[in-house]
Design goal:
Endonuclease III, domain 1, Endonuclease Iii, domain 2, mainly alpha, 217 residues
């Protein structure tokens, strides 16, 4: 779909490379993918910093840690009791699947691994795909609220479309390239934060304005 490629080129020219995901290794990416649910990245960074200082940024350390202590450390991320349980479920999966060696999962088929991740309690499509793309470098496009909002406002998705329909749009139109998907998703976040806001979007300076007038969502 030429519209998607043009959209990417415009965003990249406007913002340049985004350097995502900011983390020290695949497991930290996976932890961040859980913690970023329903919060902003600044809060996630504070929670990850707490885990690092406590020597708890490994599957084995989180597996051994009491859930209450884990919740205390990740408190800045919000919903900390729920997220502590989700992290526990995730590390149980990782220890069972690969002995906690997350990098070894890169050899596995992306779609089969995605199906297994989605069976982990508390892991939804966006979290699973973030782990696949950013931690394991699998060419799986991550869809979030920014992506949906931009695509719908510019008529590339119907107003009723959801996660799966949006993801299929990218998978069908673009080559399966993890680096491209990584950068594209990060650029959606950037334009969504700076211009394509939920209310009162700043259309005047948006690099996508000349693609056509945005629709209300």
């Amino acid at each position: 779909m030429p519209e998607l490629r043009e959209l990417y080129e415009r965003l990249f020219r406007a913002f340049g490379p985004q350097g995502w995901w900011p983390a020290r290794g695949p497991f930290e990416v996976a932890v961040g993918a859980v913690l970023t649910q329903n919060t902003n990245w600044a809060n996630v960074k504070r929670a990850v910093r707490n885990l690092r200082r406590a020597g708890a940024l490994s599957p084995q350390a989180i597996h051994r840690m009491a859930e209450a202590e884990l919740a205390r450390l990740i408190r800045p991320s919000g919903y900390y009791n729920v997220k502590a349980r989700r992290l526990k479920h995730l590390v149980e999966f990782l220890i069972s699947e690969c002995g906690g060696r997350l990098r070894s999962l890169r050899r596995q088929d992306a779609q089969e691994l995605r199906r297994r991740l989605l069976r982990v309690k508390g892991i939804g499509p966006e979290t699973a795909d973030s782990i696949l793309l950013y931690a394991l470098e699998k060419p799986v496009f991550v869809v979030d609220a920014y992506t949906l909002r931009v695509l719908k406002r510019h008529g590339l998705l119907s107003p009723q479309a959801g996660y799966q329909e949006a993801q299929e749009l990218f998978h069908k139109a673009l080559e399966p390239d993890a680096r491209l998907f990584n950068e594209f998703h990060a650029l959606f976040v950037r334009v969504g934060k700076e211009f394509c806001r939920p209310r009162r979007p700043l259309c005047g300076g948006c690099p996508l304005l000349s693609l056509g007038p945005p629709r209300s969502t």
